[in-house]
Amino acid sequence: MRGEHAGYACGAALGFLGDLIAADPRRGHPVAAFGRAASAVERRLWRDHRGYGAAHAVLCAGGAAAGAALLERTVRATVPPPLRGGARIALTAATVWAVLGGTSLGREARAVGGALTAGDLDVARERLPHLCGRDPQALDGSQMARAVVESVAENTSDAVVGALVWGALGGVPGLVAFRAVNTLDAMVGHKSPRHRRFGWASARLDDLAGWPGSRLTAALTVLAGPDRRGALRAWRADGGAHPSPNAGPVEASFAGALGVRLGGTLAYGGRVEHRPVLNDGAPPVAVPDIERAVRLSRRVSVLALATTVAARLAAGALRRSPVTAARPAAGAVSRRAVRALARTAHDSRSPGV
């Protein structure tokens, strides 16, 4: 068990490093393959009904998690013992690399920021959909900068921290299940006429899966941000005002840490939404704030890796602690003592009594 936890820690670190070096491939990404499969299932199952949407979510996310668990079990059962530890580390590293998106997130954010700095709004509008689903034609330069910072904040949780949390909890199946749920939410979890009912289950499942990662992201933002007090104050004051239970704490803490104002009116999926203002009273987002947000996202991601790996190792050490190890022995002694007393009582009885 100790080797298993240490192996996960090594694999997670290698996978994180792989994302830093290689980022996401332009073609052939496993998450894209999952998206195509989920779309095919949707075409077969779609009805304007929550029950069919729930079946879609369970089939896609559950199937991905079951496949990952089967692959992990196959490695454990078929790879010779001398190579098994290395094979499991390699599997964890490949999975972590596949599910993380922190480097691609920063790359796309900087691409929009570079276009805005150069004054090329057309290029910025062309690149913005790589980050979020907002209508870029309805946004000016300042609004696009705000959209980028909000997307960096939210996706730090969704594309990095949340995955690491579930990896620490569930290993390779946990990593795959979280990415599958998050991908389904992006595909069908919005309130378009087609997906208002069908995507309800995917959206609620994503809210549940994203809860621990979003809170850890907000807490680490307070620790890593340039304005710790501002981050904590904005999180407490405005985190619950956002319509998303998970995006709210993250975006509010980023707003406070960077000293900017987020939220407000936006155009999304053909609809106009009026969201609460986060960190009201601060200045609006400026283009240089995009780079500051990317750097903060990177610091939070590194801290998340260290925190989740340390938690996994601590859990393994706790299971092997002398107190924990002594509990079965103590229980066995107690059972033997009870049986001995029972035999003594039985032998002490005589027919004449």
Describe the protein:
The protein is mainly α and 353 residues long. The chain is 75% helix and 4% strand. It is built from twelve helices and two strands. The protein has helices spanning 2-22, 30-45, 50-78, 81-99, 102-117, 121-127, 141-188, 200-224, 228-238, 247-258, 288-319, 322-348; strands at 262-268, 271-278. Strands 1-2 form a two-stranded antiparallel sheet. Strand 1 (262-268) and strand 2 (271-278) form a beta hairpin. The chain is globular. The N and C termini lie far apart (55 Å).
In short:
This protein has 353 residues and is mainly alpha-helical. The chain has helices at residues 2-22, 30-45, 50-78, 81-99, 102-117, 121-127, 141-188, 200-224, 228-238, 247-258, 288-319, 322-348, and strands spanning 262-268, 271-278.
What oligomeric state best describes the polypeptide chains here?
single chain
Number of helical elements: 12
Enumerate the spans where pLDDT stays under 50 for 5 or more consecutive residues.
329-334, 344-353
Strand arrangement within the widest β-sheet reads 1-2
Largest sheet: 2 strands, antiparallel
Number of strands: 2
**Structural category:** mainly alpha
Percentage of residues in helical conformation:
over 70%
Mean pLDDT: 89
How do the helices and strands follow one another from N- to C-terminus? Answer: HHHHHHHHHHEEHH
How much β-strand is present in the residues? Answer: under 5%
